Structure formats: C-alpha cells, structure tokens
C-alpha cells in the first residue's frame, strides 16, 4: 500500500513540498512502486508545446505492480469480487494469484493472435471479471487498450476503431442489465463489416446466446484460454510508453482519443487512491463506475489493485431486482468504501428511505461522489441514510484527461462542506482565470478552472493528434491546462465546481458533446438544422434539449421524437437521446452565424427573465418566437 496522509498538518506539509520541490515529492512517491530500471529525470515539461514527460528513462510494468508483487506476498487475498446482475447468478472472485494466472494466460492468447507491444486492442465488454483480465493482459504485454463502453452503438465503435486501428476486439455474446438483455456480438458484427483492419474478435460466452461466429476471425474466449500457458513475464515498458486510449467527448468534432502513459498514470492513480479514500489494508472498495469510463479504469481497476485492495465489480443496475440492490451488495460483501455518481444517489433518493430499515450498511467507512456536481440535498441524503452520519463523503473532481482525482477532500482529514470538492491534492496547482485568461486572485471568487503545473497522471496527447491536444487544452489560456469547468473558490480557499463552461453536457455523469448529438439529429430527413443544449434535470443532473428547424413543421412531434431517439441511439448510444425537442422557425444567431447557446439554455430552463444581452443577434425576434413555442408546448402537454 502506498503511504498516505495522516492529518491536516501532514496534508499541508505534503502540499507545500509538492509545490516547492515537485521532483523530490514525486520521486519519493514513485519509490514505493516496483521498477525494472530507475528514472534518469523526474519531470520534463513544456505547456506551450504540450510536451510532458515523467520518470523518463525508467522501465516498469503496471501489472507487476498491480498483480505480481501481491501474488507473491498475499496470494490468497481477493483481488476482485464480481457480483452478477441476477440474484441467482451469485458472485465470483479471483485472488491475486488467480488473477496472475488468468492475466498471464490471456496475455498469451493475445500474443498468439499476433498482438505485440504498441498494438491497439479494443474491449467492448460489460462489467465482467474478464473485462479486468483483458485490460490487464494488454498492459502486461504492452498493447494499448481502448475500452469502448458497452452502451455505445455500432457506429460509435466504428468511429473509434477507425481512429486507433486495433488488431483485435474483445466482446461477449450478450450483456444483461436489469431485465434487459443485449446481444453485443451483433453490434460488433455490424461495426466489423466497416472495419476490415480488425483481424480477430474474441468472444466471451456470457449468456449462451445464439450468435454468428465468423470462421477464421471470431474465436471463443474459453477455447483460446484452454490452450494458453499460464506463464507470461510482464513486458518491460518505458515510462512514457502508452498504456491506454480512452475516447471522450469535447465541444466540437468527433470524440477524442485521450492517451495515458504507463509510469505517470500508475504513480498518480496509486497515490490518489490510497490518499483520497484513506485506505486501510483490509478495505473492500466498490466503485460503481463501468470500466468503459475513466473512473472504472483508474479506481475500479488500477488504483485499488496497485494498493493490493479488493475491488468489487457489479454487472447490474441499482434498481434491479429492486432499488435496495446497492445496499444489499454493500452488506453482502462488507464493502467499506463506496464510490458512486450523484445521478445514482438522486435516482435512489426518489424511492424514499423505507428500504434502509432492512439494510445494515455497518461496514461502510468512506463514501465517494464523482462525475458531476453533487447538489447539497443529495449530499445530505447520502451522508445520513447511506453513511448513517458517520462516513465522510469525498466529492472527487477530475476528468478523463486528468487520469486521476485532482481536487477532493482526504477522507477523515479534510473538514467537509457539502457540494465542495474542497482542496487540491498534493502536486495540483489550480488557478481561476477570467475570460481573458487573467488570474483571479483571492477568495470568494469565481472563474474558469485551469491547472498551471503538470502532475504525473495527466494525459500526454490525443491519439495521433497532438495538435488537437495542444489546441483543446493548452491554447485557450496559453501555457495553462484548461479544464473546461467553471469553479468558485470560497473564503477558506475551498473549490466548488459549477459545471462545464463549454458545449459539453453531463447527462447522468455521461459526458456528451453537443456537436455529436447535433450531427446525429441532422441526419433525420426532416431536420434542416438543430441546436442542442443541456438544462438542469432533477435526477440526471443535466438533460438534453434539442431545438429543430424542420422542412415539414406540421409533423407529429411525438413521432418525430421517436425517430430522433432511434437515430441518436444508433449513431451514439441510448444515453445521448434528447429529453425534449421543440420545432422552431429559427435559431438565435449572431451576425457571424454563431448560435448563441447561452440563450437557448436559459429558455430550456424557463429562465426567460435572464436571457442577457440579445443585441448582437441577427434577428432578436427569433427568441420571442422560441419562448412562445415553448410556452405553447408546455400548455399542450
Ligand atoms: O464537469 C466535470 C465533471 O465531469 C467532467 C469530466 O467528465 P469525464 O471526463 O467523463 O470524467 C468523469 C469522471 C472523473 C468534468 O469536467 N465532474 C467530474 N467530477 C466532478 C465533476 N463536476 C463536479 N464535481 C465533481 N466531483
């Protein structure tokens, strides 16, 4: 386990040291990991060119750190506990020794299919133990994994595959979520017909589905594993070799392949896991995030295993077979640390508290929140009903690009204020700037959140597109990393994230680019143009509102909505469907043709009194027409 901060004064000292002597600070953290060769330099960086290198010259393998050292010292400790969707499926577990064997075997399977260091491997799997095995096996042989969330459509898979050219895709015949069963292989088949570069597809038999196996290309997981040797030494990786690519949405264009590298990511994720959650050696950690998202990568998988801590994987949903499922799993596996998203908390809150009378939840020590701002009411509900008033809530702020948590309380140490992510972790130098990039000093202020100094876990590039990396994150405010988030700093220097200031929408913790949804909707033959915005939603945090200019305005809106839902589900995924649509005559545009989304957001939230300056609009009467249309729409529904 990585050493962790023990008191507030300890935190202050660590923070000071990390700012004044960052290289010494991080080399002391890094010394707690297993290296094949030590680094020649701790840090080289230049935010003007977005070149960042940590631990250059060092050699290591993240699986030697996650698995091998614990397979030696505590072979029988559970590394992963898996809980199935259906109650009668029960649970399974793998010890560190068993995980070492499974990962070594699957590593040999990949090698047998010709996968070499530096090759990409796509993983399209639900929350199964095999998802962890597949990711770790890639890391063991130096292949770059790219996990595609199993809620994405065939078109989204194709876009990602065409960007990163994996040799192999790993999937399962089916997945189950609640009462829904989805044939994943069918979705892959649809995608593979457009991605000839994929040479092999490994299929896990999850549900005995009747699927089509393509001779020569498709292989059953269990058949390949049956023949594989259980010896596979970890590949010696350079510190800055790529570990994984994870696609995420931005304001514009296609999803970005965020690239993380081996050593910095390992050190940062291991360190933040141990510290933020105040980890004790017998903890059972459960993060409800799917491995398809960064939280699943960094804390369900890598962070916990890097500390030798048991991690829980859950295949299902919080409301199946009933809304007490999360609490039953906590009791069943004696979970001590529970990490989830505000949207799940709010959804469960809506069922009331009677469910808690039959749940103990006495094993819990620490609660966490991630992915979106947590409102105060949800914070208190979570604290009182789940944590029984005894468990600190760590409201952890971070991003796919940051690799790990940047601003968060340290459990049992940082005094909490509901809905505040509180203070930066050691090594993190946040800065608030105004629209011109001028630093906003002092407290009781609000601005755009930037980070001014590198940390080991930060993304190094966008796959095959360093220029876009530089443009997106380091050019808006030159020489600063720009997060895209707005943020307040209170009188005590505590940070409160207010949400995105760009055109990214956060629906139920899923990051969605407005541009992607607009492109999908505009594929509908009746839609000439559209604008999509996010608006506040009681459970999802934000929901999508789409304004549409249509060729035929007399169309039945319900029918149109169903058709648009289908298009968006096919092109992106079900989670990106708009909550509401409205047909409009025009969109509020500036003279240069830019859509003023600020106004559309206000209208979607019925905040007509605060539309702000409309004088720069080409035709301000459009705004009144949209408002009129919206009020009519409400009175008709
Ligand atoms: O807007 C912030 C929000 O989620 C965005 C990052 O999304 P993604 O890359 O998908 O990663 C999510 C999991 C780390 C951020 O720009 N966000 C994340 N955590 C918080 C948050 N907003 C407020 N409070 C948080 N704790």
- Based on CA atoms alone, the radius of gyration comes out at 24 Å
Strand order of the largest sheet: 5-4-17-16-18-19-20
The secondary structure category is alpha/beta
- β-sheet strand percentage: 15-25%
Strand elements, count: 30
**Bound small molecules, deduplicated:** adenosine-5'-monophosphate-propyl ester
Gross morphology: globular
Number of helices: 18
Largest sheet: 7 strands, mixed
Span between N and C termini? 57 Å
> Uncertain regions: pLDDT < 50 for 5+ in a row?
none
Average pLDDT: 96
| Helical residues, percent | 25-40%
Description:
The chain is an alpha/beta fold. The protein has 18 helices and 30 strands. The protein is globular. 51% of the residues are buried. Residues 248, 294-295, 369-373, 395-400, 421, 483-485, 497, 499-500, 506, 511 line the site of adenosine-5'-monophosphate-propyl ester.
């Amino acid at each position: 386990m990585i050493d962790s901060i023990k008191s507030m004064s300890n935190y202050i000292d660590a923070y000071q040291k990390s700012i004044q002597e960052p290289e010494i600070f991080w080399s002391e953290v890094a010394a707690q990991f297993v290296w094949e060769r030590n680094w020649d330099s701790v840090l080289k960086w230049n935010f003007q060119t977005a070149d960042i290198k940590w631990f250059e010259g060092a050699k290591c393998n993240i699986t030697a750190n996650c698995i091998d050292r614990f397979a030696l010292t505590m072979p029988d400790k559970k590394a992963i506990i898996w809980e199935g969707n259906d109650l009668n499926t029960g649970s399974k577990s793998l010890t560190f020794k068993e995980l070492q064997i499974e990962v070594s075997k699957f590593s040999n399977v990949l090698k047998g299919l010709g996968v070499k260091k530096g090759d990409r491997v796509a993983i399209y799997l639900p929350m199964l133990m095999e998802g962890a095995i597949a990711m770790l096996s890639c890391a063991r042989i130096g292949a770059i994994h790219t996990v595609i969330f199993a809620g994405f459509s065939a078109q989204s898979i194709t876009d990602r595959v065409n960007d990163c050219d994996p040799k192999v895709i790993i999937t399962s015949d089916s997945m189950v979520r609640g009462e829904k069963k989805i044939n994943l292989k069918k979705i892959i088949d649809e995608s593979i017909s457009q991605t000839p570069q994929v040479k092999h597809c490994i299929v896990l038999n999850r549900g005995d589905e009747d699927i089509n196996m393509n001779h020569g290309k498709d292989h059953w997981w269990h058949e390949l594993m049956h023949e594989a040797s259980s010896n596979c030494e970890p590949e010696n990786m350079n510190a800055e070799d790529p570990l994984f690519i994870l696609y995420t949405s931005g304001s514009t264009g296609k999803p970005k392949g965020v690239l993380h590298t081996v050593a910095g990511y390992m050190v940062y994720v291991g360190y933040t896991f141990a510290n933020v959650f105040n980890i004790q050696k017998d903890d059972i950690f459960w993060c409800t995030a799917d491995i398809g998202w960064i939280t699943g990568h960094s804390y369900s998988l890598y962070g916990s295993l890097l500390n030798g801590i048991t991690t829980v994987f859950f295949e299902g949903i919080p409301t199946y077979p009933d809304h007490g499922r999360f609490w039953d799993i906590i009791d069943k596996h004696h979970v001590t640390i529970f990490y989830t998203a505000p949207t799940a908390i709010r959804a469960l809150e809506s069922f009331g508290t009677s469910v808690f009378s039959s749940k103990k939840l006495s094993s819990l020590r620490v609660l966490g929140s991630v992915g979106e701002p947590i409102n105060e009411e949800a914070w208190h509900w979570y604290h009182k009903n789940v944590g029984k008033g005894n468990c600190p809530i760590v409201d952890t702020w971070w991003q796919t690009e940051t690799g790990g948590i940047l601003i968060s309380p340290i459990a049992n140490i940082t005094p909490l204020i509901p809905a505040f992510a509180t203070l930066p972790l050691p090594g993190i130098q946040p800065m608030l700037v105004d629209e011109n990039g001028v630093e906003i000093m002092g407290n009781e202020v609000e601005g755009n959140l930037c980070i001014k100094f590198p940390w080991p876990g930060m993304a190094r590039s966008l796959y095959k597109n360093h220029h876009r990396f530089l443009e997106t994150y380091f050019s808006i405010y030159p020489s600063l990393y720009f997060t895209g988030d707005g943020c307040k700093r209170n009188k005590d220097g505590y940070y409160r994230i207010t949400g995105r200031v760009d055109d990214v929408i956060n629906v139920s913790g899923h990051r969605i680019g407005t541009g992607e949804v607009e492109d999908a909707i505009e594929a509908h033959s009746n839609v000439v143009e559209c604008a999509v915005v996010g608006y506040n939603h009681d459970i999802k945090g934000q929901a999508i509102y789409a304004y549409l200019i249509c060729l035929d305005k007399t169309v039945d809106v319900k029918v149109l909505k169903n058709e648009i839902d289908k298009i968006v589900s096919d092109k992106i995924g079900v989670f990106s469907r708009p909550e509401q649509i409205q047909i409009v005559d025009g969109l509020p545009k500036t003279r240069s043709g830019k859509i003023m989304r600020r106004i559309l957001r206000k209208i979607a939230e019925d905040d007509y009194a605060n539309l702000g300056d409309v004088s720069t609009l080409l035709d301000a009467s459009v705004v009144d027409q949209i408002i009129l249309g919206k009020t009519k729409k409400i009175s008709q529904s």
